[in-house]
């Protein structure tokens, strides 16, 4: 096709795009108008809506997820969870709510990209709407700093997590306060009366907490008794804590004492948060038993040293020659680069091992120094090893996360 024909088709394409946009806008407006008309034609029955909410809160499996609890300033704060507010909105009827990503912007000057989002809740019957605009940085904070998010799924989950709390707040602005309070009271009643403490339920709870790195001993330390003698009230409290942890409303350290024996696991998790999960480093073979000391060999008789040559008259004294410095190898450069990140704690020790494993496929300095120079410089793309170039990027990323 000639350039003239292409130029002639360009305005048509623009017109087609405009027509398509106008059609989509008209369709969206028609859908909203239809929803408003249906809401006016079939208004909610408040008594029926409250009965449905009460019935939902009477289910033990739902009541376990209906409350959250977290600590702030030494005080335990509890309230309706995101799931409970969504269930109330569903049974209240004629409510539209959600989270929308409005726009996405690239990062500048070393800052991560970010998205502009909107959480909203709209009562179609009363035409009352509550919305909250917020910005989500494509960044995940960790105890060791944080890292930028690149994967689309990670970004979606971050936006959904940040938007869920704001959506709950919007729904709370629409639903009458007494309806929310009655739902919370009904859930507490359900957990107290129907929440039987059975071995199966205790085992299920321990498995759920184990997925969050909370051990049986940590739970027993908090409730001040053995898990076999837990009461229904304590079970309700643990259920709230689990909901809070699962919804990322609080951290494990807010509720439980992390023992020293678990520091290595916590350190590895923080490293994984920076670099991604890595395979466990290879175990080194035990050193061979030391040989018995041998008697010192007889030293050979030394020949008499030759007398030093006398300097000639007016001859300047010879300057002492400095030993030639060995030129640092690519292995030395890589190890020095990694050592710049070490600050002396367990997390950094794991971080150094993971950097070697991630970029060169080994976990010890001895094995690393035995690698060919080409592998260190260029890496091994077939085995997903980036070499020095990837190592420099990782070190730069960690330093920027630390603010150094």
Walk me through what this model shows.
- The protein is flat, with a radius of gyration of 33 Å.
- It contains 15 helices and 7 strands.
- Helices cover 51% and strands 13% of the residues.
- Strand 6 and strand 7 form a beta hairpin.
- Among the domains are: 45-182, no CATH class; 196-262, no CATH class; 330-402.
- Residues 278-293 have low confidence and may be disordered.
- Helix 2 packs parallel to helix 6 (177-193), helix 4 (82-92) packs across helix 5 and helix 10 (263-275) crosses helix 12 (346-360).
- The two termini are 56 Å apart.
- It is an alpha+beta fold and 404 residues long.
- It has helices spanning 3-41, 46-57, 60-63, 82-92, 152-174, 177-193, 199-210, 216-223, 232-246, 263-275, 330-339, 346-360, 365-369, 373-378, 387-402; strands at 67-72, 75-80, 95-105, 114-123, 128-137, 139-142, 145-148.
- A 3-stranded antiparallel beta sheet has the order 3-4-5, covered by helices on one side. Strands 1-2 form a two-stranded antiparallel ribbon. A two-stranded antiparallel sheet has the order 6-7.
- The longest helix has 39 residues, at 3-41.
A few lines on this structure:
This protein is α+β, with helices and mostly antiparallel strands and 404 residues long.
């Amino acid at each position: 096709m000639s350039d003239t024909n292409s130029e002639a088709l360009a305005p048509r394409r623009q017109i087609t795009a405009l027509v398509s946009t106008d059609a989509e806008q008209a369709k969206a407006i028609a859908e909203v108008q239809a929803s408003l008309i249906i809401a006016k034609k079939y208004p909610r029955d408040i008594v029926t809506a409250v009965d449905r909410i009460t019935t939902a809160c009477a289910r033990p499996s739902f009541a376990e997820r209906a409350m959250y609890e977290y600590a702030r300033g030494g005080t335990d704060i509890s309230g309706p969870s995101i799931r409970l507010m969504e269930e109330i909105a569903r049974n209240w009827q004629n409510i539209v709510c959600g989270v929308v990503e409005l726009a996405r912007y690239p990062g500048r000057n070393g800052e991560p990209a970010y998205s502009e989002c909107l959480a909203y809740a709209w009562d179609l019957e009363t035409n009352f709407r509550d919305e909250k605009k917020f910005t989500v940085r494509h960044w995940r904070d960790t105890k060791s700093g944080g890292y930028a998010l690149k994967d689309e799924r990670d970004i979606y989950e971050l936006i959904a997590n940040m938007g869920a709390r704001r959506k709950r707040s919007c729904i709370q602005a629409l639903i009458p306060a007494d309806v929310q309070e009655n739902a919370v009271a009904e859930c507490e009643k359900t957990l107290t009366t129907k929440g039987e403490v059975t071995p199966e339920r205790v085992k299920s709870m321990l498995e759920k907490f184990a997925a969050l790195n909370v051990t049986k001993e940590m739970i027993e330390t908090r409730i001040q008794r053995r898990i076999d003698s837990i009461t229904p009230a304590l079970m309700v409290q643990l259920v709230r804590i689990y909901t809070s942890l699962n919804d990322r409303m609080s951290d494990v350290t807010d509720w439980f004492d992390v023992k020293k024996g678990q520091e290595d696991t916590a350190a590895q998790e923080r490293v994984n948060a920076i670099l991604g999960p890595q395979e466990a480093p290879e175990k080194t073979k035990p050193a061979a038993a030391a040989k018995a000391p041998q008697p010192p060999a007889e030293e050979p008789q030394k020949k008499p040293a030759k007398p030093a040559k006398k300097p000639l008259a007016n001859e300047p004294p010879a300057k002492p020659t400095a030993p030639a410095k060995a030129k640092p190898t690519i292995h030395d450069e890589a190890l020095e680069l990694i050592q710049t990140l070490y600050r002396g704690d367990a997390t950094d020790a794991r971080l150094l091992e993971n950097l070697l494993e991630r970029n060169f496929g080994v976990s010890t300095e001895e094995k690393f120094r035995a690698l060919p120079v080409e592998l260190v410089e260029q890496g091994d793309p077939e085995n997903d090893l980036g070499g020095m170039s990837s190592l420099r990027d990782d070190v730069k990323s960690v330093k920027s996360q630390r603010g150094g």
